[in-house]
Design brief:
Keywords: Kinase, Transferase. The chain is α+β, with helices and mostly antiparallel strands. The chain has two domains: 14-284, ATPase, nucleotide binding domain (Nucleotidyltransferase, domain 5); 306-481, ATPase, nucleotide binding domain (Nucleotidyltransferase, domain 5, 2-Layer Sandwich). The chain has 17 helices and 18 strands. The protein has a five-stranded mixed sheet with strand order 3-2-1-6-12. Strand 4 and strand 5 form a beta hairpin. It is globular. 48% of the residues are buried.
Amino acid sequence: MASTTAIAVHDRNVFLGVDVGTGSARAGLFDENGKLLGSSSSPIQIWKEGDCIEQSSTDIWHAVCAAVKAACSIADVAGEEVKGIGFAATCSLVAVDSDGSPVTVSWSGDSRRNIVVWMDHRAVEQAQRINSRNSPVLQYCGGGLSPEMQPPKLLWVKENLQESWSMVFRWMDLSDWLSYRATGDDTRSLCTTVCKWTYLGHAHMQKNNEKDSRDMEACGWDDDFWEEIGLGDLVDGHHAKIGRSVAFPGHPLGSGLTPAAAQELGLVAGIPVGTSLIDAHAGGVGVMESVPMSDSEVKGDDVEALCRRMVLVCGTSTCHMAVSRSKLFIPGVWGPFWSAMVPEYWLTEGGQSATGALLDHIIENHAASSHLANRAASQSISIYELLNKRLESTMTELELPFIASLTEDIHVLPDFHGNRSPIADPKAKGMISGLTLDTSEKQLALIRHAKAPGDKDSACHPRSLPTRRGLGRALLHARTLR
């Protein structure tokens, strides 16, 4: 009987989604119906020194392995049951040498610190210089590059860390590096290259229906652009350092999971691994393709319904994304990006550079923060739940019709980390209007709510969303690899 049960369990088709955010790596296991079988997360280290924000690819890989193993244990899933893997991650910049070892991107010289995190703003001046050249590729980035994109960061490293620049063999988006680390295949994703590297994805358009076009030689790099901005050496070797091969998200890579990576993850070699997605864009796929139950029969076959939706993906930052059949050029709004999220649709993308990060900043720097944290811990609830309870009780005491009424005299301009869109000004500053000398928990609750109006419970805080939000989005393209 035990043997029969084991066979039945091992006949399951289980899919693994790995989502690496700014503060942790999450792993989740799902069945064919999308049911979450188990998940786990592992924290990742981050260094912050002024505008420089750095991480370690070695640390992140260790966190991924720990999260995957823990998730398998929690879900009681054997490695041979996993039939596909999908990675999603922040659009951070990874530097490695010819052996795949980390190369420092830090003033400290610490080789562990080989990732320029997406929210790093060290390259503001480089972005301004690049944008002043008015290259044709900039029209596909809302008219100008953000310092959160990769070319300005690359230029900063070349101008400030010459030794590191000469040592780097591959510059990669973090999600591309994860799939490369898992498979040994250096094929990049249309999602990452189009959205963050100025790759012109629509160069694939005419070849989209050709045999093997999903894994063809990269044809969307504008060599003149790289020459003009002083990074012409990245064109060498058919763009070997930034991507010779670019594929649609979800395209199976190499021969699947390598034996070495399989051993580290506790899985089986050869499992299909898909070309990656940026974390927010993977979430966008899931939301964009979903249809309310009441509309599923009526609109299920209406592909144009996708063009009438906007996706809001929340986390440390926030992304607002919409797709269209035709190009939409909107100053200050990123895009149009071809096939960067939904295949063969143009993506336009806005957002805010600091949302969850700003909420954390407001709470952590308030006079009542320490006392609030102690009270939350004593009640075994989150700080955000405690603040929400405070808001609800205050609303009841004052006999107000809704919680938002509490903040009518408090206003927050949330550009504490610059403005992503539509002003597209990384130097923009934030402010809070309506402050008094009150330093109570009540006042903190009001400021936090003014920053995020409409919150009903702690789940509305981006950083406290269940891990399955990120895991499910990474999984979406893993399931296509069966």
